[in-house]
């Protein structure tokens, strides 16, 4: 019998500190440091990114929770206090992105910077936050996939004991989908850090590349999960999404079950739409002349160059 890791890090009197919160805080700090470091190349003060985090992080958390609660309203309509219990899990990344983008658009316009230029700098930070943040799901034993054999985790994936043991939940082993997504994003952050050094990259395209990369990974990982936000939609759409996901079954087996006989996972549908939208935005911005700045160009504030870029 395996003992799961304690999701509570420590207690100070009536105050209980959960690993989930510590991990999310660490994710935010690492993302901030990455943005500050890259911002130095463009002579942007570190205080700018600190303030952006102070505005963006609460906006992302609130939007992520609201997004989740809206789709799981039946679980909260009779107990409103649970809406605020985010340490129990239950936040949606797509909701977080919506909240963060809205806050960033407002903040960059207030500071008279181009949203696209700042979003490019912050894109690797977002991935870093997601890489680390997913381990909060690991500590809570949530956001996992469907059941698997222990041999799949130990012999096929060669996972260490602490991950295998934590994926033993209520008498069964499960897909560590938090790990799949975290590893996918590690590859993604490396790609972003490399391609932003190429001269052909235009302003806004690092952020769009992040959106595309994350959404592709999320689409395939989501198909393994058993806690997906879902709805009952047209069969042709469900067949289309299932067909796109089918290659994953060659490696990971059957998809995770969807509750209540619903047939469309919201995150999968949103991911496909985001990829299409991001590609269209990149093409339109280039063809219509809106992407006339390169990533490596000095960043302008209110129409004036902040200073020469530090190579």
UniProtKB/TrEMBL annotation:
InterPro entries named in the record = Lgt
Q: Where are the transmembrane segments?
A: 17-36, 48-71, 83-107, 177-195, 201-221, 264-284
Main subcellular localisation: membrane
Q: Enzyme class, one word?
A: transferase
Q: How does it sit in the membrane?
A: Multi-pass membrane protein
Question: From what superkingdom does this record's organism come?
Answer: Bacteria
Query: Where does the protein end up?
Result: Cell membrane
**Pfam families per record:** LGT (PF01790)
Signal peptide coordinates: none
Look up the EC number in the record and give it.
Answer: 2.5.1.145
What does the record give as its pathway? Protein modification; lipoprotein biosynthesis (diacylglyceryl transfer)
Alphabetically, the GO molecular function entries are: phosphatidylglycerol-prolipoprotein diacylglyceryl transferase activity
The UniProt function text for this chain reads: Catalyzes the transfer of the diacylglyceryl group from phosphatidylglycerol to the sulfhydryl group of the N-terminal cysteine of a prolipoprotein, the first step in the formation of mature lipoproteins.
Instruction: Give the NCBIfam families listed for this entry.
Output: lgt
What protein is this chain from? Answer: Phosphatidylglycerol--prolipoprotein diacylglyceryl transferase
Organism per entry: Marinicrinis lubricantis
């Amino acid at each position: 019998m395996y003992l799961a890791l304690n999701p509570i890090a420590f207690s100070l009197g009536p105050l209980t500190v959960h690993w989930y919160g510590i991990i999310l805080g660490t994710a935010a700090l690492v993302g901030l440091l990455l943005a500050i470091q890259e911002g130095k190349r463009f002579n942007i003060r570190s205080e700018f990114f600190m303030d952006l985090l102070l505005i963006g992080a609460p906006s992302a958390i609130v939007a992520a929770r609201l997004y989740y609660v809206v789709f799981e309203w039946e679980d909260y309509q009779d107990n409103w206090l649970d809406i605020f219990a985010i340490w129990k899990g239950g936040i949606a990344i797509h909701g977080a992105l919506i909240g963060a983008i809205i806050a960033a658009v407002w903040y960059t316009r207030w500071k008279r910077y181009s949203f696209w230029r700042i979003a490019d700098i912050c894109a690797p930070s977002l991935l870093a936050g997601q890489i680390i943040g997913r381990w909060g799901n690991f500590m809570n034993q949530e956001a996992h996939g469907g059941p698997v054999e222990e041999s799949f985790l130990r012999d096929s994936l060669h996972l260490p004991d602490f991950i295998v043991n934590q994926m033993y939940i209520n008498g069964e082993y499960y897909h560590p989908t938090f790990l799949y997504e975290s590893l996918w994003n590690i590859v993604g952050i490396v790609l972003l850090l490399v391609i932003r050094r190429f001269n052909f990259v235009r302003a806004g395209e690092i952020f769009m590349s992040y959106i595309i990369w994350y959404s592709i990974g999320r689409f395939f990982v989501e198909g393994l999960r058993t806690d997906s936000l879902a709805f009952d939609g047209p069969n042709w759409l469900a067949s289309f999404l299932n067909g796109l996901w089918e290659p994953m079954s060659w490696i990971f087996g059957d998809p995770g079950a969807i509750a209540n006989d619903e047939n469309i996972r919201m995150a999968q549908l949103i991911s496909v739409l985001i990829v299409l939208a991001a590609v269209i935005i990149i093409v339109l911005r280039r063809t219509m002349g809106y992407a006339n700045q390169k990533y490596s160009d000095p960043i302008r504030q209110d129409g004036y160059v902040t200073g020469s870029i530090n190579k």
